Amino acid sequence: MLKTIPEALFFVMLITGIGLIFSDSFKLQIRKLRRKSLLKSNSAKPSYTSKIFNYVEDLIDTVLPKSRITPGTFVGICSCIFGVVHVLLFPALSVIAALPAMFFAAVPVMILRFKLEKIRNKGSQEGEALVSTLLNCYRMNHRNIFASMEEFISLKSDRCIITGGLVFQLLISIRNTKSEELIRRACERFSFALRTNWSKMLSVCICAAACEGLDITESLEDILSQLGEARTLREEKKRSNTESMKLVQWFVPIAYFGSMLLGSFTLGVSASDMLKNQFLEPAGLALLFVIIGLFIFNNLLLGLIKFSRFDY
After folding, report:
1. Is-contact 105 81, C-beta < 8 A?
2. Are 241 and 304 in contact (CB under 8 A)?
3. DSSP state, residue 251
4. Nearest CA to 308 among 204, 238, 229?
5. What residues does each domain of the chain span?
6. CB 312, CB 197: distance < 8 Å
7. CA-CA-CA-CA torsion for 213, 219, 220, 226, nearest 10 degrees?
8. What is the C-alpha to C-alpha distance for residues 180 and 163, in angstroms, rounded to an integer?
9. What values do phi and psi take at 248, rounded to 5?
10. Cα–Cα distance, 35 to 301 (Å, whole number)
11. Model pTM score
């Protein structure tokens, strides 16, 4: 008994001494932990780890920036649409009712996606104007990215209508936060809104300047020079694509009617028989639908190329 009491007293004195020596360090670490938890609770949005929720969140913030709809609410609305349509069509279609229900549930997503593509196509055309104006503001504001973005927004350039709104949303998201994770997330959302190589590079530069205070002048100049080269190549492709579109639009109908006239004269088939074989016979009608389908498909492909996003 006597042997254990001195040992216990020794350990108590040892722990008390360590506590007195490192008490200030312990208090400092506790204060840091409290500050971090307070910052997270006040400024951080609820994080949706699922990729679907992240995608929906980016989609809503880009297309409907002033909306208060959360990803969970949006998914809930789509689920309700699926349930209502499925219940209404189940008596008539049974299990197959799930297919039209899925289609109607996806309609809100398709509408937002269509608007997003319009934003991306129009916003990508403003790349050169955005980077050049932001670079000038960055130089004039002594490499301060926040002041540069504020000045860029205040200019209200007619050449940066779409990108100006995106930069404004980005500035609101990163201006009053010290969390690098939130800044990085906001920059990723800016890149998602345009989905181009130059927007990805620009978002990385803004993130580096906002988080680490790096000088991004050379990076912005490099993006601008690559956009200039891409503009030259795009003009050349545009001219060739215009010629291709004219060829498809005019040559195909002329070739079709020309081949009918040529076949009528060379094969000795009358025009009435030619029309009868084309429109009343199954083989001729199938061939006609194939020609029309390929004609429309080619026009759509050329339209996608013509109105594609500007990128390098």
Report:
1. yes
2. no
3. I
4. 238
5. 51-123, 124-229, 237-306
6. yes
7. -160
8. 23
9. -65, -40
10. 55
11. 0.62
